[in-house]
Design a protein that fits this description.
The chain is of the alpha/beta class and 731 residues long. The chain is built from 30 helices and 17 strands. The protein is elongated, with a radius of gyration of 36 Å.
Length: 731
Amino acid sequence: MKKSQVVFLVIIALVLGYFLASVLFFGLNHSFKKLPKLWYAGITFDMLINGWSKAYLSYFLANFISFTLAFLLPLLPKKQSLHGDARFANASDVKKMDLYGDGIIIGKFQNRLLRFGGQQFVSLGAPTRSGKGVGIVIPNLLEWKESAVVQDIKQECFDFTSGYREKILGQKVYLFDPFNKRTHRYNPLAYIDMNSDNADGQLTDFANILYPMTGDSTTQFFNQLAQNLFIGICYIVHDLLNSKGGILLLKNLNVEIDFTLYGILQMSEGFKGEIEFGGDRKIVFKAFDDTYNVLAELGLIGKKAQMRCQSYFKIDSDNTKSGVMSSFNAPLMMFRNDNMRLATSANDFDFRDLRKKKITIYIGITPDQLANAKLILNIFWQQLILVNTKELPQANPDLKYKVLLVMDEFTAPGYLSIYLKSISFIAGYWLRSLMIYQSGSQLEANQPDGYGREGAKTLLTNHACQIFYTPREQEDAEKISKILGTKTIKNRSRNLGQGGGGSESDTGRALMLAQELREMPFENELITIDNGKPIMAKKAFYYSDSYFMNKFKEVSPSLRAIDGGEYEKEQYEEIIDKKTKKSQKRIKIKQNGKIPSRSQLEKAIQNGETNIKVPLQNMANIKSYFKELYDDESERFEKLPEIVRELNEEQDEYEKKLRLQRDKDEAAKIAQTQYEQEQSSKANQSVKNIDTDPTEEETINENDSDVEQMKQNATCPNFDELADENQDYSE
């Protein structure tokens, strides 16, 4: 029991003992019949003061009995209700849940903000236009003092809160809008360390995002080959940019190739043009195949690039080759768009700094581009999680800050495989998820749009705090009703016939029925927390709370001026932080001032008082970058090798690997041929039993073998085995 409960029981026992002592006093003196006539409230006090006969014995026995009862009664088994005893949390229950400290704002209870602390996650099920932005997202961005990454579909969060997070909270703030020239930049390939021992693994992780191994066997077949081609071309681009010969070739051909997704797409099309080589030789570039062969001959690409690309170049069928290239190009074509190319041409922010510095990143996708943004959002979130789950905070003292992942419109990026797999452990890496979705059916949609029924269950199970706004779908209402539980009520019946009578029985009832949930007032919300009673709370609307509106006043001169002209200019005052007890400077605002109206707030936002300035990207920046990259008089250029050299692998070891791979390819072809013969034999046997004309039979056999023929022409090597330095490569 808690200290407060013990104190309460002691008080009850003392009061009970006081009155029980007078009763025992009459009993021990054999005068019990005189009790009604002689008893008065102060008799216990008088008998103890005056030392009446057996007064102290009576008092001792009375207190012994009262204390025994007071401390034994709570330990007695309670009668269990037949159908449950579900109820909403009261003030005492909410206090026990420790929701009045620091953490993610989840609502209001009795006009006090509720915050969910610790490392656990929060989910919000809220239909569109139900107030999730004004009730959860914006209040948290005005309150959360550590790093944050925000999926901001309408850029509303950026417009309202970016100025406060930069100016008042002292954070570095960025807006990534890949469909607009006014954006900060994010290059996904910059996070791949091509010089590390794990470059292959990092490239494979990224290739799995672009070409997921989902769908039917044919799709997986082409995606596997596309993955290998993508990794090979990444190595080609890296090799060209890291040798003098490669840079001079790109410069002479006037080709702008860099290590970006646009650059990889350009490289896959090959070079166009011709150059003179050695004075008497002219080299003509027409397509990717020609480009690859020339680069290999000139020693401008390394063995890793060749090993990865061989599964593509050994394909005999032109149709299969074309299919692989189509699969390769499909996710990359969007990066040909000028705005997308500019937005992904470099890095203005670094995911690796999110836990080292206070940083806020807004992913501002406008609703009209949501369908086109699915891939870049998917890449962004999966890479962010991958980069920040490589090192635990305990292992690196530089990792000092938690990161709040505000994932509004959670399913907008589609299926995030990394997120689903890591949801159970990313809290240990100081990543906190605030997942916002519209309905259960949205989460349960099949891949790649959703997570399926089991995946949705896994996600919600790992969010210890779940908030529900008024549901619109009957299915969602019924699920919430079951989560809230049932309570036991008395069911009374009366006989209206001759003789009357009636009966009473226990029956069960949902704490809230589905129809009651759908009729819940707009300002109400339901909160469920592990190991706690459900809470019927209010939404924490920022626009009706002076606590939040004062934060807007700190960055907006026009909103400060509502309280008088003397507040319009920035004036600082010293305040004492209640928690740290340290003195801080803050922009002076009028306490208990007026709450700005909606039109006044909107005007301040339109004037740019509450947001930050975002740089304008243009092609001149890219031209300047390539001029510097291709500068053959720079210090970087002088340090580069003439051609690509493998530093960690001897030629004979490499040749052994190639021989091993050729042997594996031959074995795969033999196995494939045997499989086709078996299938053909079965098909012929089946056809003999069917009365068909010879033309139809021939057509059936040709169609059945198309995919198998493609697989025969292009088998995918197992590069994990090739990369194993300890493997025995003896023939």
